[in-house]
Structures are given as structure tokens and as C-alpha cells.
């Protein structure tokens, strides 16, 4: 079903996004590692260990088992999706009654720098984002601050692109590793969560938790004011206003692929 919306509205937003993408590529970088933008997933990784993010840029990313698992999981989630180009995606967002989109490239200007990212999935209704979905395959059952700041950064980007985020929520879905192979369940999961969200009136709460077998779902109301305060501290690193802060968790160092190169490693050298 299509709802009535100015035919020029989606074109205006699409052209704005294209213009931002072009400008970000041409602009001389003032950020660390000569980046043109700060990626939402990097912001999340900063809360895990900022020093690890830095070393990934200095020495190159080393593929770990968890990274491979995450890639396989996201491929399974989007396997049956219909590929559309950026122009078609923006048109559907603003002309469809409701619209699901996965891995949509988003980029916005935020306090004189560019934020970028590809949310796992976003559900739009009548041109407004309703829910951001982030899927994490993990042996742990809880969500972590790094998961939340990544999803919240997507919310900031949507807001700065002109979307109404006053009713926006985000969902962190924690899945056990074995579910990578259960493609049917993965494909249905987002819609099942939204049915629960509406049916149980979870939109009236700031936060909710759903348990679906071995899957834990954490739903949170997006609060732009709380997010900006956290995000600004993270961006100090990218603006070269301070150095990387290493983790104080020895267990993170123990499984880190850079532990032998890191001067801040909490693992005693042999």
C-alpha cells in the first residue's frame, strides 16, 4: 500500500544523501587515520577497546572466528532480501506505508564531521524510522554498551538526515552461534519482534526485554540527548583530541589478536 506523500520529498532526501556522499569523499580529511568519516561500528568497537580499534587501522584487520561468524550470520539474515539501489531505497522509504531495508548506507554531517554506517535492518513506517535492528551472534546472553552505542549512532545519523526520531526505538538481538545455519528463523525474526512490539505495546516503555528460546532481544527507546553526550566523548579520539584508551579488562586482552604487539596488553609477556 502507498500513502500520499509529496513526490518531491523523497527526491530531496535522496539528493541530500548523494550530495553528502560526494562531499565526504572530496573533503580533505582532518580525522585520525585520514578517514573521511567515522563509522558507527568503529564507535561501538571503541567501547570494547579503543586501543584495539587503533591497532586495527595501524596493522590491518585480522579476521577472527567471531568476525567470520558475524559475517556468515548477516549473510544468512539478508539472503532472501531483494537488492535495490540507493535511489530506489529512498523512494520506497518515503512512498510506502511500511518498508524494511537492510544494510542501507547512511551518512550525515554531525558537528563538522561525517558519521557513516550500514544498520543491519531498519523498519520505516510512513517515511519515519520506527526500529533499528542490530544482530549479534555471541556465546553471551547479554547486550553490551558497545552494541548500544553502535545502534544509537545509527539513530543520530537518521536524525541528522532530517528523519523524525522522536518515536524511534532500536533492538539488539543476541543470538547463539549455532543459529547462523537456521536461515528461516533468522529471516522471520525481525517481523516477529515487531509484532511483539506492537501487540504488547512495548512502545509505551523506554526499554523491554524479550526471550525467544535461546534468543535474547533488548529493545530500547532512542534518546538523542543522552546519545550525543556519549558520542561526543568517543569522537574526541577521531578528532585527535586525545590518544586511544586501552581496556582495563584482562580477559579482552587474552583473546585479542594484537596482544603481542600492544604496549598496553594486560597479558604478561613470556
From TrEMBL:
- Which Gene Ontology terms of cellular component type are present? nucleus
Q: Name one GO molecular function term.
A: single-stranded DNA 5'-3' DNA exonuclease activity
Which BP terms in the Gene Ontology apply to this protein?
interstrand cross-link repair
Q: Which PANTHER family match?
A: EXONUCLEASE V
Q: Could you identify this protein by its name?
A: PD-(D/E)XK endonuclease-like domain-containing protein
Q: Where does this protein come from, organism-wise? A: marine sediment metagenome
